[in-house]
Amino acid sequence: MKITTKLWIGLGVLIALSPLGLLLPDHFKAGDAWGEWGTDGVKELVGYIPQGLEKLSGLWSAPIPDYAFKGWEGKGLGSLSFAYIFSAIVGISFIVLIVFLLGKVLAKKDDY
Amino acid sequence: MHIPDGYLGPATCGVFYAVMLPIWTIASKIVKKTLKARQVPMLAIGAAFSFVIMMFNVPIPGGSTGHAVGGVLVAILLGPWAACIAITVALVIQALLFGDGGITAIGANCFNMAFVLPFVGYYVYKAISYNAPADSNRRVLAAGVAGYIGINLAALFAGIEFGLQPLLHHTASGQALYCPYGLKVAVIAMAGEHLLIFGWVEAIVTALVIKYLLKTSPELLEEGRG
After folding, report:
1. Which residues in chain A touch residue B53, judged by CB atoms under 8 angstroms apart?
2. Is it the case that residue B111 has pLDDT exceeding 70?
3. Which of these ranges, A50-54, B12-16, B149-153, B221-225, has the smallest mean pLDDT?
4. Is A65 close to B99, i.e. CB distance below 8 A?
């Protein structure tokens, strides 16, 4: 088997395992990454929401915020894991598409 | 390490976009000269790997979370310029589709994770693995050390960027406008948790994959440097 085939399979395994990145922090009661709190989190930590932070934090409304579907906030870990895997597939599909398009533009074709 | 919108003031965001612009331009030029068409799938795999490995949040029990970036591995395999492009693609997708990292902070996040991390990692790997035979364990060790140092310097930069904000932007009464934590807290938090925990995750991931590739496909580690 070609090494790239093996690596694609490896990526598939990582996608399938990705919910660990959701379940382990939940199990060990770990919160946001440092400096990645929402406005509520900042208020809890320092007692106020910095004005500029409040203004800019809502600047972009991502289609799949935090690798979860909008409106699924209260759902269980099973649903969230599904959304996480779905996000990994969507993200990787976009990335692979973009890199292949970039490759068409950038890479040399004359050395096969 | 994905700085969200609102944590960096406009000046910092602008500076890092301005710094990244020539880096992205040079990266495209160099990759255009050195990347072979048959390496494109590896570049795609590298970008995808970096994206998915960042989804594996590692918890500090009762505290915060963090993750590996996988970028040092991509730099070892494809060179730091190609890695810069691969990680940039991953970071832009994370910001646009998933709100992971801010739109205004793409310049800063790319500087930390798509420039500092792969370049530092690449040259540390080169220095330690210099002249090592293909089957040498020194290469595996070099990959681990490179991953550890690369991600830690990236985290240090992120800490400095966070920590400068209260100095740069505050109200007359002294309230911060953006990131509320100053240099001391931000640098200790970012550097500390990466030195103690997440740096080791990057080190282990990088070393294990290089070990595997040295065994199965050593030619991957001999070609395509740029």
Report:
1. 14
2. yes
3. B221-225
4. yes
Closest CA to B189 of B44, B47, B64: B64
Range of the domain at A90: 1-33+63-112
Chain B within 8 Å of A106 (Cβ-Cβ)?
Answer: yes
Answer whether A15 touches B (CB < 8 Å). yes
pLDDT digits (tens, 9 = 90+) for B2-50: 999 999 999 999 999 999 999 999 999 999 998 888 899 999 999 999 9
ipTM score for this prediction: 0.94
Domain spans of chain B, in order of start: 10-221
If one counts the domains in chain A, the total is 1
- Give CA–CA dist A87/A67, Å, rounded: 5
End-to-end CA distance of chain B: 27
Any chain B CB within 8 A of the CB of A41? Answer: no
Q: Tens of pLDDT along B78-106?
A: 999 999 999 999 999 999 999 999 999 99
What is the mean pLDDT of the segment spanning A37-66? 95
CA A80 remoteness from chain centre? 12
A28/B55 Cβ within 8 A: no
Collapse the DSSP code of A83 into the 3-class scheme (helix H, G, I; strand E, B; otherwise coil) and give the result.
Answer: helix
Q: Which CATH architecture has domain B10-221?
A: Orthogonal Bundle (1.10)
DSSP state of B4: P
Provide the mean pLDDT of chain B.
Answer: 95
Which of A28, A53, A108 is nearest residue B7 as measured by Cβ atoms? Answer: A53
How far B129 CA sits from the closest chain A CA (Å)?
A: 23
pTM for the full model?
A: 0.95
Q: Which two tokens stand for residue B108?
A: 């800063």
DSSP type of residue B37 = G
A98 occurs within a structural domain: yes
User: Do residue B175 and residue A98 have CB atoms under 8 angstroms apart?
Assistant: no
